[in-house]
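If your schedule permits, I should be very grateful for your opinion on a structural question. I would ask you to consider whether the tokens describe a fold that such a sequence might reasonably adopt. Thank you for your consideration; the sequence and its tokens are set out here.
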Amino acid sequence: MLAVVLVTAAVRCGGHDVPGAPPGAGRTAAHGSAGPASAGDAGEEGGKGPEHAGPPPRPLPRSPATVLRVPSLGIDAPIVPLRLDPDRHLGTPPLDEPGLVGWYAGGPTPGERGAAIAVGHRDTKTGPAVFAGLARVARGARIEARRADGRTAVYTVDRVRVFDKDTFPDKEVYGPTRRPELRVLTCGGLFRRATGYTSNVVVFAHLTATR
């Protein structure tokens, strides 16, 4: 995707603000931060994943996302499309349906070239939500995104980072990519009643297979 227009958006997670600016179609977002935060890594307990020999899979044509699976975490969740409101804020799945994952409909669909964005709640007022354990996903783990056309994009986790929301690195998370990639976001860090969660968990993954 080309860096044509800068937009700013905020994702809400568990009912609390989370920084972030997902790209619109043909756009890359920036929120004013120039580089990565130094909050550290998460989810590395699994060590390095298997190496994927052979050429990378060809990007898929456009088709909406329908289901997200993270087998190592037991996640098998329906996907709902998310869009920007008039203030360029990205919505989240309904708080009364904590098992849903949201996919930014203005960005790449599963397997398309570019950085696709999926978001979900860590928790709600009723208890844990779909991404309660997201920070524990290991490097090398598989993430599968099923599409409306029946095909599945299979991503492999490269790294998991925890970023302070006040220094969230939009370029690193939402910047343009030459290959199909995936970012999965939820809340992280400490919860403060007045301001919500202090951080974001971000999973970085890239396409390694299609079927």
Summary: Residues 170-174 form the longest helix (5 residues). The chain has one domain: 9-210. The longest strand covers residues 196-210. The chain has a mean pLDDT of 78.
